[in-house]
Amino acid sequence: MPGTRTTGHFTFADWKENPVGPEDTTPRLAHASVVNTFTGGIEAAGTFCEYAIAYLADKSGSFTGMELLTGRLDGREGAFALEERGTFDTDGTVHCRFEVVPGSGTGELTGLRGTGRFTARPGEKSVAYSFEYEVE
Q: Residue 57 in 3-state DSSP?
C-alpha cells in the first residue's frame, strides 16, 4: 500500500487473561483484555484491546484481536479500530500484523486505511511498531 510510513512504540498498561474452557487440555483457549499506550506516530493512551488466544502443547500459539485507538496519528485527531493477527514462539516472541478495520476511522482519520506490524520479545517493556497508511 503506498502512503505514509510511521513508527513508534507501545507498552502494555494492563493485561487480564482468563481461560476459555478446560485449563488442563491442549490446545488451550484463553481470552485477554489488554490496555496499551502508543507513542510516536500513533499517540493513544489507554487503548481497548480484546484477544482470543490458542496455546499449543509446546507453549507456542496463535491469537486474533481487535483494538480501539483514540488519539492522534501523525497529528491528525480521531479514532480507529485495528484487527490484529499473530503467533508466538516457544520462547515467547510475538509476531503480529494488523490492519485498520475498513470504515472505522473518525474525525480527521475518516477514510483511514493501513497495515502494520510488530515483534515483541520477552522482557521488553516497550515494543516497536511500524505502520503504513493513507487517509482518503
A: coil
Q: Are 33 and 52 in contact (CB under 8 A)?
A: no
What is the reported pLDDT for 2? 59
**Parallel, antiparallel or unpaired: strands 127-135 and 112-120:** antiparallel
Q: What is the pLDDT of residues 101-132, one digit of tens each?
A: 999 999 999 999 999 999 999 999 999 999 99
Asked if 118 and 100 count as a contact pair (C-beta separation under 8 A), the reply is no
Residue 24 is placed in which grid cell? 488442563
Instruction: Output the pTM of the full model.
Output: 0.93
Write the DSSP symbol of residue 108: G
Count other Cβ atoms within 10 Å, centred on residue 97.
Answer: 13
**Alpha-carbon distance 30 to 35, whole Å?**
17
Q: Is 107 helix (H, G, I), strand (E, B) or coil?
A: helix
